[in-house]
Specification:
By secondary structure, this protein is an alpha+beta fold. The protein has 4 helices and 12 strands. Helix 1 packs antiparallel against helix 2. It starts with 7 loop residues before the first strand and ends with a helix.
Length: about 240
């Protein structure tokens, strides 16, 4: 595995047992394991988090205050309509009941629209300060049999059956989920739209790696750098 980049640390790593030495030992179980190493950036993270929180809190308060008069007015209308609905229900006035229910539904729609508008404006303010390229993960899975790409873009990787890049995305008003680069080695075949399957013999004698899936999670440029340093030859030797 690559060393931690400058300004980063290794935050976690799988401890794996030694691989079986003999394929003839029938007590050896079917080989399947996952190794993972996680890197975290330490340089600048504290300052970035502080700035993100400041911008988020200021924007949420400012945009929330601006929306409050409209929200309070809708709440008043909702209270009035709810009281009127009770009276209409007691009087069994079906036409009035329907009208008031429609009014309450429209009131709820307007309320949701205001909150969505506030969230959108806060997101726009926060966007330049989202913390990115703060974590990277390399995961090596041996003898996995199924992979679904989602909306992954195909990549060209020497020796790989298939490879894809799934871009990062926002996961909340102030959170960012890094993208993934996935590389499949071995006898993988496409079996549907974005679905790939591998034929793996499930016998105790098949102790070698038949498929290897390398998943690298992180900023695209960061992953490209780690991928260059990754000893792929050593990893692929598990399949010999």
């Amino acid at each position: 595995m690559p060393p931690a980049p400058v300004g980063w640390v290794v935050a976690g790593e799988t401890k794996s047992d030694p691989l079986p030495q003999s394929a003839r030992d029938q007590t050896v179980p079917f080989l399947r394991f996952i190794y993972q190493i996680r890197y975290q950036r330490t340089a600048g993270i504290r300052e970035e988090k502080k700035k993100l929180n400041e911008v988020y809190n200021e924007s949420a308060e400012r945009n929330g205050d601006a929306a409050n008069p409209r929200i309070e007015e809708l709440l008043k209308q909702q209270t009035t309509a709810s009281l009127a609905l009770r009276k209409a229900t007691r009087r069994k006035n079906q036409a009035e009941i329907q009208r008031l229910n429609d009014e309450l539904d429209e009131n709820g729609r307007k309320m949701r629209a205001i909150h969505e508008e506030v969230d959108k404006r806060v997101s726009e303010d926060v966007d330049p300060y989202l913390i990115k390229d703060a974590e990277a993960i390399i995961r090596v899975a041996v003898n996995e049999e199924v992979f679904e790409t989602g909306r992954g873009e195909p990549l060209s990787v020497s020796g790989a059956a298939f490879a894809f890049r799934l871009e990062g995305k926002r996961t909340g008003p102030a959170a960012w989920k890094e993208g993934q680069t996935v590389i499949l080695y071995g006898n993988w075949q496409q079996s549907g739209n974005g679905v790939f399957r591998a034929h793996v013999r499930r016998t105790s004698a098949a102790v070698k790696a038949q498929t290897i899936k390398i998943t690298l999670t992180g900023d695209k440029k960061r992953i490209e750098e780690l991928l260059k340093q990754l000893d792929k030859k050593s990893i692929l030797s598990l399949m010999k």
